[in-house]
Amino acid sequence: MENFGYFFMGWLDPSLLAWTAIGTFAGIYIGAIPGLSVTMAASILISFTFTWDVNDALALIAGVYMGGVYGGSRTAILLNIPGAPSAVATALDGYPLAQRGEAGPAIGLSTVMSVIGGFVGILALAVAAPVISQFALMFAPRDYLLIAIIGILLVGSLASNSLAKGIFAASLGIVIGLVGMDPMTAQARFTFGEFSLMGGISYVAAMIGFFGVAEVLYQLRTFDLPAIKQKVGNIIPKWSLIRKYLPLSLQSSAIGVTIGALPGTGGDIAALLAYDQAKRTVKNPSRPFGEGAYEGLVAPESANNAAVGGAYVPMLTLGIPGDAVTAIIIGALYIHGLKPGPLLMVETPHLFWFIVGNLVLANIFLLIFGLSGIKLFSKIVEMPKGIILPLIVVLSVVGTFAVQNSVTDVYWMLAFGILGYFLKVYGFPVAPVILGIILGPLMDVSYRRAMISARDDVMIFAGEFFTSPLSLILTLSLIAIVVGQTPLWARLRGRKAAATS
Questions:
Q1: Residues 6+ apart with CB under 8 A from 100
Q2: Fewest CB atoms within 10 Å of the CB: 28, 310, 348, 477?
Q3: Total number of domains in the chain
Q4: What are the pLDDT digits (tens) for 278-318?
Q5: pTM reported for the whole predicted model
């Protein structure tokens, strides 16, 4: 009964209620601006909360985190510029929906599904935190390697026509992601003697360039076409539509919670895995995936917000951050004299239930703020291209520069925009490039740690993929994904479908 009091502490205190609401509102609109990520917002805001009461600080951070993960979907849908990496998968079907004039319903549905995913993640945090944290501890470096490879192979789903083009794009992303200092030896890699490349290439610059500037250049090919009027009359989705997609949302939320609980992963990988799972399992989508399927919105938006609750699990129970934002929150807890880890729930149980209650409250505010302002946001894509395209370029430059105050990042962003334009022209998908940039370093570090644990013996390294039950399941999944994307398997499925019809 005492835990209920801690749970509703943030609901009954006007100041805590206000900080949660302010954090959620700020997170939504900061997350919607390319380059201003939720990680940046959390790090900046925490610097202001060092002298605050710990409850006020945690209330603000919970709101920023929940709102920021969702906020990236708005510009992904309206402008094909994901505000955050977790919205990359959302853009695949969200932007085609906006091009069809359905930006309002798309944002409304993504908001509701994000809230559902958020509640699933919070429920998992409240009920199954110890179980999920123990499951996360089972993952060895080789398992992270397998997850990263599976993520790279998802380019078969992200690439609409050609698996080869998708793998090429992902490989390009891996090379870009490995530029800079080696994380294990501190040696320069792919820098060609340029000191400015020692810190690597900003994935934000790459993301904005490949999605934002490349789209602007591509839109110049159809500059004279009139803007599409958006349907914003029915912003709140009908209950029948929510009920129809609820099973997919719950399935994707489960993926989000699981991936979010794995240290070092996060909502971006969860969203891509959920999108791929939906593409494989949904038999009759509303439209083909990549052409404005509502299922392509439901899956990633449910997963990336569910990953928020999942990321809190290892942070609170093990003291291990689930993603970059929870790493910042751990720093804030230490500054306020708290020690996240196994003893946190024993020594300060009120803090755990206070955090859970604030996440629920932030999720409610997410629904309120997420369904407001959509009509104004939708007007963005109705602006004449002579106004909106230069505006996108300006926002892209400002957003890229704001990350590290680096003009070099702006140059990289423009270069990636030009490269992305030619990739689009010749039919290469750009989403796998971003996926490669994100997963490439994870593959690199996981492989080398796995080899170190195997004492650099290739036979031991290979054998461990089949001796560990978890590694075996992931290995078989990897094989199934590879086989499932071959032309031979497609022909066999076609023959089977013809035989049953």
A1: 228, 292
A2: 477
A3: 1
A4: 888 888 888 888 888 899 899 999 998 999 888 888 777 76
A5: 0.70
